[in-house]
Amino acid sequence: MDHRGRRDDETSARRRRFAEAAREDRPDLAALCLLICAEAEGGLPEAAVDAAQIELDDLAGRLPALGRHAPPGRWVEAVAELLGGRCGFHGTPADYRRLESSLLHEVLRRRRGLPILLSVVWMEVARRAGAPVYGVALPGHFVVGFGEPWGRHVLADPFDGGRPLSAEDAALLVAGATGTTLTPEAFSPADPLEIVARVLNNIRAWAAARPERSDVQLWAVELSLLLPSHPARLRYERAELLVERGEFARGARELEEYADVIAPVEPDTAESVRHRALAARAMLN
After folding, report:
1. DSSP 8-class letter at 182
2. pTM surpassing 0.90?
3. Residue 93 DSSP label
4. Tens digit of pLDDT for each residue in 50-84?
5. Which residue of 26, 39, 83, 251 has the fewest C-beta atoms within 10 A of its own C-beta?
6. Pseudo-torsion of CA 22, 18, 15, 258, nearest 10°?
7. What is the rounded distance in angstroms from the CA atom of residue 277 to the CA atom of residue 249?
């Protein structure tokens, strides 16, 4: 088997593992994030995956044994003192410009990352230590919650070293990031697959702003399509990327398939997509 064939087989195997992990009854958030890392790196040695999981275990072992019924604020203090304080996990505006900020193994190494990846570290470490912790997907800024989502709880911002957040603080964060008003539904716990989808959305957005990194945008789209639930329009994005990357026949075929899917509800859009497919096929001549 030649090098390209071997690489394709390795990619297919990684994608199968990701799809299987995403369809487990209780998806493992850290494992899924590390499979994203493997895709970004073109393969991640098992030793590196194990090292990341071991570090999360080690960090959890350094937290006090507070128990699930400890006051939520006490958990926030303990995790912030360890991760935000002694270990220096936090974020800066510059981290938004780095792909590494969306990759768990790099966030563990650099102690820097986007709010959502720093929150993943907090959740995985605190969960292993027995804390009642969950992710909160605020619009424009991901944070963590400790306690009961609809009862006694405390929010914290891992991007800011673990600063506790009142409801008013959270509303100001959202207003500053998106200009929108915070609704009560925004405080709902995010499940692992929602978090993974948001991580991949961030990677897609990072790559979309860098046309030379369409390869990253493509694999982020393809992993998103492997999640049990995803927007249908991702299929159109993938087809367009294939055309942009010079894979005109594949791109045209996928544009046509997408047009067939949306034709019953969006006939005008479907017709426009079919014209786009014809234009892509014309590039083959």
Report:
1. -
2. yes
3. G
4. 999 999 999 999 999 898 889 999 999 999 999 99
5. 26
6. 30
7. 9
Residue 91 has pLDDT above 70, yes or no: yes
List, in sequence order, every residue forming a beta bridge with 112; answer none if it has no partner.
90
Q: CB within 8 A of 106, min separation 6: which ones?
A: 37, 100, 113
Q: What is the pLDDT of residues 108-125, one digit of tens each?
A: 999 999 999 999 999 999
Residue 138 structure tokens: 């605020």
Q: How many whole angstroms separate alpha carbon 90 and alpha carbon 69? A: 27
Whether residue 181 contacts residue 171, with contact meaning beta carbons closer than 8 Å, is answered with yes
Write the pLDDT tens digit of every residue in 215-251. 999 999 999 999 999 988 999 999 999 999 999 999 9
Q: Nearest 5°: phi and psi at 70?
A: -65, 150
Helix (H) or strand (E) holding 221: helix 214-225
Can you tell me which residue has the tokens 């959305």? Answer: 201
Please tell me the chain's helix, strand, coil percentages from 3-state DSSP, rounded to the nearest 5.
Answer: 65, 10, 25
Please give the order of strands across the beta sheet that includes 189-190: 163-165, 153-157, 141-147, 133-138, 189-190
Partners of 154 in beta bridges? 146
